[in-house]
Design brief:
Blueprint lengths: L4 E2 H8 L3 H9 L6 E3 L2 E4 L1 H17 L8 E2 L12 E2 L7 H14 L6 H14 L3 E2 L3 E4 L13 E12 L7 E9 L3 H16 L1 H9 L3 H13 L11 E2 L2
Parallel strand pairs: 5-8, 7-9
Antiparallel strand pairs: 1-3, 2-3, 4-10, 6-7, 8-9
């Protein structure tokens, strides 16, 4: 299983000063979690951070970044966004099912683009982590492709082989469609914090239906540490 990196190891990996890394993690700009009072980081999520920065640099020539409010989970996630019993047996099936679901909810304008973009992102670097979770997203934010930002969640009781570093099965699939890079990274950090706890993870995997999964997510979001709670303020690029 992929081990957590210490702040020193992660700083060396990102070529940042350790103090800078800890500040960015505290602000929710780099995905990390506190374990026993010490910051810890997953290499897969740090790779996602680097990829997001690369995407942002390409888009920077388009002008001023869109300002988006860092809102609570209830504004971007609903019980309708939950697929409680995912029947897909492989990566392509998971992606297709989730895209079909959010399209049916009217959350996506171009489902063909989204399905292709999610598949391309997984080919680049799989988004699954050893906790049994994957964080699906398009490499580019492309907010014109969906009328409102959202997070969706699919649960597979049996699990799907989805490219996790430990070769284990993935049970929870989050689909993030957020307006800009800053908000994407903040919610990535929050979701990583939620699922790293074995009790919270077990509750999501064992929940009876979509309502129970939704309730578990809301309860977990309300328990976020101060450093990770939504600010209600504009999230920059």
């Amino acid at each position: 299983m992929e081990a957590y990196m210490t702040a020193k190891e992660a700083a060396e990996y990102l070529k940042l000063a350790e103090r800078t890394l800890v500040r960015l993690a505290h602000e929710g700009k780099i995905p990390g979690v506190k374990i026993g009072g010490q910051w810890r980081f997953r290499r897969a999520l740090l790779d996602e951070y680097l990829d997001t920065l690369a995407s942002a640099s390409v888009a920077s020539a388009a002008g001023n970044p869109e300002q988006v409010i860092d809102a609570p989970l209830t504004e971007i996630f609903s019980v309708e966004n939950v697929i409680p019993d995912l029947e897909a047996a492989d990566r392509a099936g998971v992606i297709h099912t989730m895209v079909e679901h959010v399209t049916g909810l009217g959350l996506v304008n171009d489902p063909q683009w989204l399905e292709a973009a999610l598949a391309a992102r997984e080919r680049l670097v799989p988004t699954a982590v050893p906790e049994g979770v994957a964080f699906l997203h398009a490499r580019r934010r492309s907010p014109d492709k969906f009328p409102q930002q959202f997070i969706a969640l699919a649960r597979s009781r049996d699990g799907v082989v989805f490219g996790s570093p430990d070769m284990g099965r993935t049970h929870l699939f989050f689909l993030l469609a957020l307006r800009n890079d800053a908000l994407h990274l903040r919610w990535l950090s929050r979701l990583a914090w939620i699922v790293r706890n074995s009790t919270r993870m077990a509750r999501l995997v064992d929940a009876g239906d979509a309502e129970e999964i939704y309730a578990a997510m809301l309860e977990a979001s309300e328990a976020l540490p101060t450093s990770l709670r939504p600010t209600g303020m504009a999230a920059g690029r």
